[in-house]
Design a protein that fits this description.
Terpenoid_cyclase/PrenylTrfase; two-stranded antiparallel ribbon; metal-binding; 10 helices; about 240 residues; zinc; Geranylgeranyl transferase type-1 subunit beta; Prenyltrans
């Protein structure tokens, strides 16, 4: 029996661009549960446009500026909170009802806190849009990361509660790399956490003793690559 010819799949670039543009403006009602993750949606939308080489044409200058200002309005600064520096960085969106222009008219908000993955995606989008990061409170973010790292080398997603696994080790390493400040992470502890997360099949899990996962392998490789730029001996110690 002859093998059936496989239909060639083509990427509908124009439709993809339109979808990503729409994701930056209007989301369906079914996406309401993602309100706390708006920064992540923004990241994938802008990143997608960039990969499709359409970022310059898909976003007008004023739209870029609006996005940049919105991102900065989600920055949790030391003067915004009445708690420890572990809260500083970026939140996932304006779900707390924080004023849009909070970077110019700061006010404390009860239960406000940053999220390490949202901090990473916020910084990444700012760079993709050409921002110089001049309004970032770098020292506060670095101190926050230091407080979020656990004894086993992993990172919590946010203070007081939240998950801790490989995703947030990757997010923290990206933040340190972007800010060029490694005072917020104990690299050796992080590498040991990665080593303990390697399974019998040489794959990597979210945490020690969990099943291997392709996503974890990818972000672990990326994390070690970032560490390698910081200290080559870290990677050779892992291998």
């Amino acid at each position: 029996m002859e093998e059936e010819e496989k239909e060639e799949v083509k990427l509908e670039v124009k439709k993809q661009i339109k979808f990503l543009q729409r994701s930056l403006s209007v989301l369906p009602y079914s996406a309401r549960s993602l309100d706390v993750n708006r920064m992540t949606i923004l990241f994938f939308s802008v990143c997608g446009l960039d990969i499709l080489n359409s970022l310059d044409t898909a976003l007008r200058p004023y739209e870029r500026e609006q996005i940049i200002e919105w991102i900065y309005s989600q920055q949790v600064l030391p003067q915004h909170i009445a708690g420890p520096d572990a809260c500083c960085g970026f939140r996932g969106g304006g779900y707390l009802g924080v004023p849009f222009d909070s970077t110019k008219h700061s006010m404390p908000v009860p239960c406000d806190t940053a999220h390490v993955a949202m901090t990473y995606t916020a910084l990444a989008v700012l760079i993709m849009l050409g921002d110089d990061l001049s309004r970032i409170n770098r020292s506060a973010i670095s101190r926050s990361l230091r407080n979020l790292q656990r004894e086993d080398g992993s990172f919590q997603s946010m203070p007081f509660c939240g998950e801790n696994d490989m995703r947030f080790v990757y997010s923290a390493s990206c933040v340190c790399h972007i800010l060029d400040d490694w005072s917020g992470i104990d690299v050796e502890k992080a590498v040991q956490f990665i080593r303990r997360s390697q399974g019998y099949d040489y794959g990597i899990g979210q945490m020690p003793h969990l099943e291997s996962h392709g996503k974890c392998r990818r972000i672990t490789t990326s994390t070690l690559s970032i560490f390698c730029k910081h200290a080559v001996t870290v990677y050779t110690a892992f291998t």
